[in-house]
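Q: Structure tokens for this one, please.
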Amino acid sequence: MTQVAAVFEHIPHPHTRAMLAGSAPAPPKVDDERIGFNGKLGLFLTTIVGTMWAAYLFTVLAIVSFPSAIRSGDSIIIVAWIAQTFLQLVLLPIIIVGQNIQAKAADKRAEQTYKDAEAIMHECLQIQAHLAAQDGALTKEVAELRQLLGESR
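A: Here is the predicted structure, written as tokens:
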């Protein structure tokens, strides 16, 4: 007969081994050192343009040209002003603001998911330890039962 403890051998996943050893990478973040000049400039401009203050400023800027578009009386110029001047100029910063809010929420969800995964891994390790203890107890009981059966024969 096989021993109970020898029925299953736990082989941890490589990522689990790395996390237990403390060598698993942390959740990824934006690395300012690697984005270079163009990335830093783009991030700076996006930060400036992606505010409601920029949306208000662009609205005022767009409204400055509105009387000229109306005075032209040309429907193509009026439609072009609405589409190309107002919508693009005003909606761009508003969309960026929304994207920034969604990105922050996604970062919080990702961080929480990472913490949840760590907690689940801890719980799984506890379950494995519990099962190992049960295997030990069962192995001991099987040995005692064998001894009793052997003695009674």
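A few notes: The chain has one domain: 37-152. DSSP finds four helices and no strands in the chain.
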